[in-house]
Structure formats: structure tokens, C-alpha cells
């Protein structure tokens, strides 16, 4: 049985497509121009000529190697999504909500401060509450980033559940302990990609979107392959070039789903707030709880879609099928 982390479990390395076999110097040279690696460091289907940003990637690393991967159909991704969702509805979902509960704590604290402020007449006390609320918001932001990174580090345990079987973990703490391994790498990637996206978007929106696109698979690779952030970014760069069409379609679908989810979360929170308005200011606690739950479930759905797509690409590259 595969250990769930060996991406070379199929007939091909995760980094060399089956339609580009190893060969002599001339053949290898052709592979490089097609995106194929010849130095043992090929990072995706068809490999790459990609180099770390230190000296800047060669021109052909950006312009060559788009497309050419194995065919990926919508039915395959949908079937994998059904499998992923089914196996995630256990310890993985419980672990996701348990980690997200840290964010809920800060939401509730902010709601309680709002309740206290409602009954306080003193300007000085209200000012002090405002300062505490501001500090709490800054701390909550840092905690939210860390919690989100740990949640997406759950790519690793969910990967094992998908490729080894649904009985790998007995409870949510097992999932969380497994996710701690790639946690630091996910934090680094999250911060780096967010910074680069912001920098690119500030100059021109297109570079920011391009950065977010080509590196979108890096957290999944870092978590499931136990590689460092730079290596994960390289592999994501090439894999997303090779399978640019299904990845782009999936991202577009996620944007649309995210927009609807945001509307749903906003509308649901508004309705709950309106229904409980007669309890104001105590309704602030109810609103905070409902908003947190809707948001966590929406993010978990996005997480599952990522897992379905990227694990399907992994199967295409390695031939490894779910257990």
C-alpha cells in the first residue's frame, strides 16, 4: 500500500510525463524546450527549465511548456471531489473546525467588548475598550493567518485519507498532529505568495494574478511531498503551466463559487442578525458565531476543491489511484 506521500508511486516520476520518456542528449534537449528537466530536478509534467528567482528564470521557463499534460476531464475531477468530500467528513472536518475555533474565540471576545461598550456611559472607558479592540484585532489577524495555514497544512492528512483509506486517523487530534509537519512551510508560502501577489497587483493586476495562478499548487505540494517552500514553488510553477487549462478553469470556478459563498454568508448573517435584533446587543454574539461557521464551511469547501483537482493531477502524473 502506498504511504500517501510517495508521489513516485506510479509508473512515472512526479516531474516527468509518460509521453516524454528519458532518452539521449538530443531527446533530452528536446524535453527541455518542451519543459522537460534533464538534471533529475524536473518539477512537473514535462519537467522544466525553471530556475530559482535568484538569477531569474530563463526566458523559455516562462514562455515554453504551456499545456501538453495528460487529458483531465471534468467528470474525473467531479468524481474525485465526491471521493474527497466523502472521506473528509470525519476527523478532517472536525480538525478543521477545531483549529478554526481559535478564530471564533477572538470573534466572541470582540462581540463581548461591543456588549460592554453598549452599557458603558464613560467616554474614557469607551476609549479604552476601543484601544483593546484594536489590539485584539491585530492579534486576531496574526492568529487567523496561523490558523488558516494549519488548516491548509491538512492537505497532508487528507492526502493520506484519499490515497490510503478513510480509516487512517481515529480522531481530529491525529489530523492536527499530522498537519503540524508542513505548517512552517505553508506559513512561508502563504506570506510569500500573498506579498508577491500584492506587489504584482499594485504594479499591474495581471502580474499579481499570474503569480497567484502559477504558485497556487505550492501549498499542496509542500504539504504532501514534505519539500521546502522553494521546491514546492518550482514544482507548482511547472505543473500549473503544463495543466494550465484545468487549473485555470478550477480557479475561475472557485472565484464564482467564492462570490456566491460570500453572498450566502453575508445574507445568512444578515438574516440571523435581523431575526435576533430584539436581543441587541447580545445578538452580537449570535451574529459572530453564525458568521464564523458559514465562513469556515465555505473555506473548507474551497479546500476540498483544491484537493480534488491537485490530487487528480497527481494521479495523472504518477498513475497512483486512491485506495
TrEMBL record:
This is Glycerophosphoryl diester phosphodiesterase membrane domain-containing protein. Residues 1-65 are annotated as: Disordered. The keyword rRNA processing does not apply. Keywords: Membrane, Transmembrane, Transmembrane helix. Residues 1-20 have a biased composition (Low complexity). Residues 34-53 have a biased composition (Gly residues). The chain crosses the membrane at residues 95-119, 125-150, 183-215, 243-272.
